[in-house]
Fold this sequence. Notes:
There is one protein chain. Strands 1, 2, 3, 4, 5, 6, 7 and 8 form an eight-stranded mixed sheet that branches. This protein has helices spanning 12-18, 30-34, 48-58, 77-83, 86-106, 132-154, 193-204, 214-219; strands spanning 63-74, 110-115, 118-123, 167-181, 187-191, 210-213, 228-232, 241-245. The model has no long low-confidence stretch (mean pLDDT 89). Helix 5 runs antiparallel to helix 6. The chain has eight helices and eight strands. It is of the alpha+beta class. The structure holds zinc ion (ZN). Residues 11, 13-14, 22, 46-47, 49-50 line the site of zinc ion.
Amino acid sequence: MAAQVVHATICRGCWEQLHLPIALRGPLSAPFRVFGIKPSGMNPNICTLCETMFELVMKRKAIEIEATILFADIRGYTTLSQAMEPAALSQLLNFFYDECATAVWSYDGLLNKTIGDSILAIFNFPLRHAAHTGRALSAARDIQERCHERCRKELAGYGLDQSELGIGIGIDCGTMTFGEFGTTHTELTAVGQVVNRASRLQSVAAPGEILLSDKAWAALDPPDTALQRREVVLKGYAGPQVAYAC
Ligand SMILES: [Zn+2]
């Protein structure tokens, strides 16, 4: 079963880091809303004040974080985008973003970016969990479960067969830089090798598949015996890389 969605009543970021009860929902949230403090668009369990603090801290300087990156995308999107009506296509994207958001937030991840037919999620920031890689994997499985039926049923008939339809997911973990990048258009996001590898893994994942880097696999505690070892060729990497699939 897909995870239940229950959003926090008070901001988890403010509570865990500052021990400040900032009401996000219910009657107690009214005075906060007057000051523009409301649930963040990247994670409804933290507040816009948390977001602003991150942005202020990072305006000048990016910080290093230990986190897990999850990339997910819709396989066959280029073909679909040519065959589908614009309305149906945007409906598909909305559905995908919504299901990803629900899954990512259920495991305390940050839905950092939606880029065309893919999403980038970060786990262990700003809400911390020692088992952040395991949480990313759980979110990935949740995304697959949520999207499976719809991908198979509703995306058939657009020139792709069943085996070409589904979501591909890549996961990697480690140290990365989080900050505000760009000069004309600035964006608050994570960069580094971990982000790059997760993106590359996602691009070689089969429809319906989740691919973890060997490092992400080793970080799972307890180990996950359902994952299968495989060698994959990733663009920009010399020689085959070890990955684990499910
Ligand atoms: Zn907050």
